[in-house]
Amino acid sequence: MTRVTTYWCEWAWLSPGPQQGVLFEVEGGRITTVSSARTPPEHAERLPGMTLPGAANAHSHAFHRALRGWHGGARGTFWTWREQMYQVAAALDPDSYYRLARGVYAEMALAGITCVGEFHYLHHAPNGARYDDPNAMGRAVVQAAQDVGIRLTLLDTCYLAGGFDRPLAGVQLRFSDGSATNWADRLEEFTVDSEWVRVGAALHSVRAVPAEEIPEVTGWAHKNDAPLHLHLSEQRAENEACLAAHGCTPTQLLASRGALGADVTAVHATHLAASDVALLGGSGTGVCLCPTTEADLADGIGPAAALHAAGSPLSIGSDGHSVIDPFAEVQAVESYLRLDTETRGHFAAEELLAMATTAGHQALGWADAGWLGVGARADFVAVDLDSTRLAGVAPESIPAFARADDVRVTIADGRRIVQDGAHQTIDAARELQDAINALR
User: Fold this and answer.
1) Which CATH number applies to 55-363: 3.40.50.410, 3.30.559.30, 1.10.3720.10, 3.20.20.140?
2) Which residues, in sequence order, are CB contacts of 117 under 8 Å at separation 6+?
3) How far apart are CA 89 and CA 267, in angstroms?
4) Is 223 in a helix, a strand, or coil?
5) pTM, whole model, 2 decimals?
6) Which end of the chain, N or C, is surrounded by fewer C-beta atoms within 10 Å?
7) How far apart are the C-alpha atoms of 140 and 254, rounded to whole Å?
8) Catalytic: 319?
9) Given phi > 0 = left and psi -120 to 50 = alpha, else beta, which region is 343?
10) Whole-angstrom distance, CA of residue 4 vs CA of residue 242
11) 325 close to 295: Cβ distance less than 8 angstroms
């Protein structure tokens, strides 16, 4: 017989917005009843402040976290930053990757993130040699997430080319299985026996996966009812190279190969033609925005409002982890649009919250999370309303002003993993410091 736990929330975000004095009963990691109570019953665990659904980080590269603050003020572009990223990728092995990822995921839990999508392409040993377990790097990521207590969708990524007209070179050899068929064969061997881990698929990008190989990856995703993610038009150079190689945009190329649809999430989608926006929205393809990383890498500002209007569900990710804060991400979506259009008020607070919660979980294959109601996974994030930052902020505006350091409690699947702003078992700062120092 499973234990029933009762939580009393000072405030809780129920559809369509915040309500005061809410009781949740949780059994087996799921919400079984929702009711009202002006004061907490004696047996209830109290969640002070505003209780929100757990956030989903729909796009993570855990090993990029080692780059935060490393040559951060150096002048350059995405392409010069990529060379620094390759230095970190070259240094990792399963043990060091596990230690780094554990610190990164603990930092996510502290920020109110209960589920992460790891866009995983660092598969093999240096020079492309196979580990005895060809999925050793993926298993390191899985173990890190389980130790922290958050759910994981491992988006195992196909990466086959150095560009439209160039082969793999250097550290890129670690990313490749040689062909999409070999990628699928390796992935078939990767079984995970956990209710908190799912395996999905990813195309790194149209420049890294030749057009003729794309259907193999999409076919695997469809056959396994798995989410499919891909980088899309993050850089103008990718668009120009695709036009030169194929006479079409990356979005058009994906559409021609059956790689758009409601089970697909395009990451970044920063530089799109109007016809691309229509293709993505019309097919129901989701778009994961990573505005703090896109700003850090000088990528540009994506057409979030146009994509939303066209029908693309919008989620958010921390990507390179220049910041790990789902509130900062959704607030940046709005603020960057204001700067770009010189117009305020593109997304309401509840729409911003949906980007960080329901849409993100849906994109990662967890439709039963990201909302607070009967049948949902018991993911609760309690935000402190007594901070100076939130003084005077109306309850219904909290998602538009809160930040990660306002999070006091994180509960994932009914498991309390953060209490009073500290992870229950992991010293995230120490884990990250030690792991990153070892790499550098």
Assistant:
1) 3.20.20.140
2) 56, 57, 58, 59, 60, 152, 153, 155, 200, 227, 229, 317, 360, 363, 364
3) 21
4) helix
5) 0.97
6) N
7) 31
8) yes
9) beta
10) 55
11) no
The predicted-structure confidence for 113-130, as pLDDT tens digits, reads as follows 999 999 999 999 999 999
CA–CA separation, 27 and 154 (whole Å): 27
Residue of 156, 319, 384, 406 marked active site: 319
Check if 4-53+370-423 and 55-363 are the same fold: no
Token pair in block for residue 110: 């502290």
Closest CA to 384 of 17, 48, 27: 48
**Would you place residue 2 in the very low, low, confident or very high pLDDT band (cuts 50, 70, 90)?**
confident
35 pLDDT band, cuts 50/70/90, is very high
Q: Read off the DSSP letter of residue 399.
A: G
Name the residue ranges covered by the structural domains of the chain.
4-53+370-423, 55-363
Examine the residue annotation and report whether 276 is marked as an active-site residue of this protein: no
Mean pLDDT of the residues in the chain: 96
> Which candidate in 61, 64, 120, 268 is catalytic?
268
How far apart CA 71 and CA 337 sit, in angstroms, is: 28
Strands 286-289 and 314-316: parallel
